[in-house]
Amino acid sequence: MGKSKIEISSKGIEKTLRKFDYLQAISEYIWNGFDAQATVVDVKMHKNVLGGIDQIVIADNGYGIDRRDLDRKFTPFFESEKQVDPEKRVRTTSAMHGKNGIGRLTFHHFASDATWKTTYLDGLLKNTYTIRIHSKNLDTYEVTNNILTDEDSGTMVTFHNIMKDFVYEDLLAFLCKEFGWFLELHAEKHFDVRIDGVSLDYSCVIAERECFRIVHEPTQMEFAIKYVRWKDRINHEYSKLYFIDSNLAEKHKQPTTFNNKGDSFYHSVYIQSNGFDHFDFDSEDNGGQLELSFGASRRSEAFQFLLEEINTFIKQKRKPYLGLLADHVIEDFAESKAFPTFKDEPEDNIRKEELESVIREMCLLEPRVFARLNPEQKKLVAHLIHLAMGSNERQRLLEAL
Predict the structure, then answer these.
(1) CA-CA distance, 300 to 294, in Å (whole number)?
(2) Residue 233: which domain range?
(3) What is the pTM of this model?
């Protein structure tokens, strides 16, 4: 068994990964499996006689870690916080999540050591070997020699001496928000995250799902659409459009025009078409805007038609949602005692209804104004709007928005 050093001290690694909690750490190992082209990742919890979890095993059916690539995959470690901060990393494609393999060292948040048993294909042969890292020496890893095997390719990571009290329900809830959108993206390819052999049921985070087709009549180009609205913000993934070809491969993704509007309208739209088989998603026009084309055609009429139809559909879906949001904002303002004091008189009742009406209109126009306000800010906003109404400035207020 040989030993190798990682290019940063153990304390430096812990400091760099300090923003990962144990739930994010577990999810990193699942992502590592999907990064290795796995379709199934299974998380198994081993309990001791007292019912506590003392060992966790995460196994995938990916292509494994080629021993010749080990130094490249395990030795470099980038210290840039933006690269390793789970809140700041950007996924350029859904298939590649783990940047520089940083997930391999996050286990120190919940376990004393980790052992990888990995099997990979080398020509016609299959090799297997193990890697071991201790939490007190994160800058050193031990590696065994290759052994020929008949096992299928894949990687199994075992975490020993669990130091964290795992709350099973918290783990399930986190994984649903972390992987729900990704499993929806690959639903037809039957990607799966399993907990103790049971497929992760993420339906609890789905508020609405709808499937339909769009056809561009002049070209007869057909698009299969799946729209999903999420009950809550999904982890580290904006509301996006995902473009999928006839082989079920994701070709590109981009934010929807209704992303990050401050209204908690979290959604994903998955679009499949054989028109994306030879689609250029990388071209840019002279203005620097993203240009898309079907085959040799740039900024095709069919694609522009698709975007317009999708935008119209999302807008219609968002409209009743904003109405409910406006009702919630008014109820929240009332509970927070943010409204001015009104007397129980006809004139004051009319003024109160007018104020609520303006707040509702503002919420429909620009919900971000009312996002994440503390009690004092709610009171300030309500009183300023009330003052503007009293000076006959209601219409100008709405025009300004």
Answers:
(1) 6
(2) 203-210+218-303
(3) 0.81
DSSP for 20-67, please give it.
--HHHHHHHHHHHHHHTT-SEEEEEEEE-TTS-EEEEEEEE-S----G
Strands in 218-367 per DSSP E: 221-230, 240-244, 250-255, 266-272, 279-280, 293-294, 297-298
Chain CA centroid to CA 6, Å: 29
Q: What is the DSSP secondary-structure string of 100-129?
A: TTGGGGGGGGTEEEEEEEEEEEETTEEEEE
Which two structure tokens, joined as six digits, stand for 263? 């209204």
Q: What is the radius of gyration, based on Cα positions, of the chain?
A: 26
Distance of CA 216 to the CA centre of its chain: 31
User: What token pair was written down for 25?
Assistant: 């750490």
33-51 pLDDT, tens digit per residue, is 999 999 999 999 998 888 8
**Token digits for 246?**
């006839």
| CATH code where residue 194 lies | 3.30.565.10
331 located within any domain = no
Residue range 133-149, pLDDT digits in tens: 998 888 788 999 999 99
What's the one-letter identity of residue 267?
A: H
Q: Do the Cβ atoms of 44 and 54 come closer than 8 Å?
A: no
- Position 273: which residue type? S
- CB distance 367 to 322 below 8 Å: yes
Dihedral, CA of residue 293, residue 298, residue 303 and residue 305, to nearest 10: 180
* Greater model confidence, 8 or 316: 316
Q: How many domains does one find in the chain?
A: 3
In contact, 358 and 339? CB cutoff 8 Å: no
| 296: number of Cβ within 10 Å | 8
Separation between Cα atoms, residue 187 and residue 174, nearest integer Å: 19
Q: 3-class DSSP state for residue 138?
A: strand
Alpha-carbon span 102 to 31, nearest angstrom: 11
Cα separation of 267 and 400, whole Å?
Answer: 28
Neighbouring-strand partners of residue 126 = 121
Euclidean distance between the first and the last CA atom of the chain, given in angstroms as a whole number: 67
Does residue 88 lie in a domain region? yes
CA distance 148 to 127: 5
Cα angle: 82, vertex 84, 86; to 5 degrees? 90
Q: Which DSSP symbol is given to 93?
A: B
pLDDT of residue 278: 84
- Answer whether residue 314 is part of any domain: no
